[in-house]
Amino acid sequence: SSWGVMQIKEVNEGKSFTYQDFFSDEDGVLDMNMPALIVTNEFIEEDGKTRIISTSLADNPAQIEELIKMGMIEGFSSQLDKLDKLFA
Predict the structure, then answer these.
(1) Which residues lie closer than 8 Å to 5 by C-beta, 6 or more apart?
(2) In whole angstroms, how large is the CA radius of gyration of the chain?
(3) 25-73 pLDDT, tens digit each
(4) At a CB cut-off of 8 Å and minimum separation 6, what does 25 contact?
(5) Which residues, including other chains, have CB under 8 Å from residue 85's CB and lie 6 or more apart?
(6) CA 8 to CA 39: how far, in whole Å?
(7) Which domain holds residue 33?
(8) pLDDT over 80 at 21, yes or no
């Protein structure tokens, strides 16, 4: 398992929030040797439902490639599956 820290950067109530996502140890000490992402989650109402658009930005493409190799897509997808079950 891995640990992480989310530092909220901006909140637009009811519309979006942006945070910086860091790897850390279990005590919350940031691992500055690992890539950090800037993540923005936008909430858009469509026909009585809410669409979430999540955008992750890294310093360069190599960082994204590294994170993908580490299982970022599978990890993110598993969290979305948990949300689906929570709201079912």
Answers:
(1) 21, 22, 24, 28, 30
(2) 14
(3) 999 999 999 999 999 999 999 999 999 999 999 999 999 999 999 999 9
(4) 3, 31
(5) none
(6) 10
(7) 3-87
(8) yes
Alpha carbons 32 and 43: distance in angstroms, whole number: 30
Q: What is the pTM of this model?
A: 0.84
The one-letter amino acid at 3? W
In Å, what is the CA distance from 32 to each residue of 1, 29, 37, 39, 54? 18, 9, 12, 17, 23
Number of domains the chain contains = 1
**CATH number, position 24:** 3.30.530.20
Residue type, 82: K
